[in-house]
Design a protein that fits this description.
- By secondary structure, this protein is of the alpha/beta class.
- It has two domains: 235 residues, 3-Layer(aba) Sandwich (Rossmann fold), CATH 3.40.50; 63 residues, Histone, subunit A, CATH 1.10.20.
- Helices cover 53% and strands 11% of the residues.
- Strands 3-2-4-1-5-6 form a six-stranded parallel β-sheet, sandwiched between helices.
- Helix 4 packs across helix 5 and helix 10 crosses helix 11.
Length: 314
């Protein structure tokens, strides 16, 4: 059976994916699926560097402004929503273009990873009760006994994932770490090109600093105050995002505003570094280093189109 086409455009935060993605979509007849863990939320525009309607230039976008901040968004939900969006795009005769910097989400979609999320078993309820009674550290110790690899990868405070790993072992007799490794080795069910846009590190860090300064000028503090007034609190998945947790800490009196901004800039630089480390580990990625194209979007786009033709995606 012929594989469906899929284009991925990713890279570190603030590298310039948004503008290039619009040019690419217009050139190939594509529609965009956001692989961003924050832009899916309504009311969170400034801190997430969300694409504005006028920037879309008529290109349809999916997984942008689809959930309320108090709703949970995780890799399994992303996978479900992205697959549904890709089906709609293909039905319209267009090519899905996945754009965003959340590498784990991209991997989950590209290789159709099975996270074995199913209905809660009675054993899961038993584990939840044990976690409440004996504590997260005890539960993590139980996981260490049966699956030390997963225990090393999952923090003891992430009780949900610890429970999931223990439940998987109980139901299948198999370590979830082995299952996940097998899933990562799967062949992608798509005819795809996986582009990673990159920039000289010093230039990228400068871009990050400027972007954060611009967010503050545009009203990031007011945006976080509005979210707090709506009932958004630190424990929510949405409020763990860069820009939101730091400003919340400032509003709660933990830092001065200059301290919160400096922490935000530092943590965003660290985040960009982690993103690049992730993409270097991935298979079959095509690096687009901006300096090799004299930082010309037209040249980068021309090279992307050449590669897409060679791969018979367009």
């Amino acid at each position: 059976m012929e594989k469906e086409p899929l284009i991925i455009l990713t890279g570190p935060t603030a590298v310039g994916k948004t503008k290039l993605s619009i040019a690419l979509a217009k050139a190939v007849g594509g529609e965009i699926i956001s692989a961003d863990s924050m832009q899916v939320y309504r009311h969170m525009d400034i801190g997430s560097a969300k694409i504005r309607p006028e920037e879309m230039q008529g290109v349809p976008h999916y997984l942008v402004d689809e959930l309320e901040p108090w709703e949970e968004f995780h890799v399994v939900r992303f996978q479900q929503m992205a697959k549904e969006a890709a089906g709609k795009i293909r039905h319209r005769g267009h090519i899905p273009i996945v754009v965003g910097g959340t590498g784990f989400y991209i991997q989950a979609l590209l290789y159709d990873i099975d996270f074995t999320e199913n209905e809660a078993s009675p054993y899961r309820q038993e584990l939840e009760a044990l976690a409440a009674g004996r504590g997260a550290a005890w539960l993590h110790g139980e996981l260490e006994k049966v699956d030390p690899e997963s225990a090393a990868a999952i923090h003891e405070n992430n009780v949900k994932r610890v429970i999931r790993a223990l439940e998987f072992y109980h139901l299948t007799g198999k370590k979830i770490s082995e299952h996940n490794e097998e899933q990562h080795e799967k062949e992608a069910p798509y005819q795809y090109a996986y582009f990673v846009l990159n920039e000289d590190r010093a230039v990228l860090y400068e871009r990050i600093g400027r972007r954060i300064d611009r967010m503050l000028e545009e009203g990031l503090v007011d945006e976080v105050m509005r979210l707090r007034d709506m009932g958004c609190r630190r424990g929510m998945v949405s409020m763990q995002g860069l820009g939101y947790k730091e400003i919340l800490a400032y509003l709660d009196g933990e830092y001065t505003l200059p301290e919160a901004v400096e922490i935000l800039k530092r943590d965003t630089r660290h985040f960009a570094k982690r993103q690049l480390t992730w993409f270097r580990r991935e298979r079959d990625v095509i690096w687009l280093n901006k300096e090799e194209y004299a930082c010309s979007e037209d040249r980068i786009l021309a090279r992307m189109l050449e590669i897409l033709q060679e791969k018979e995606i367009i």
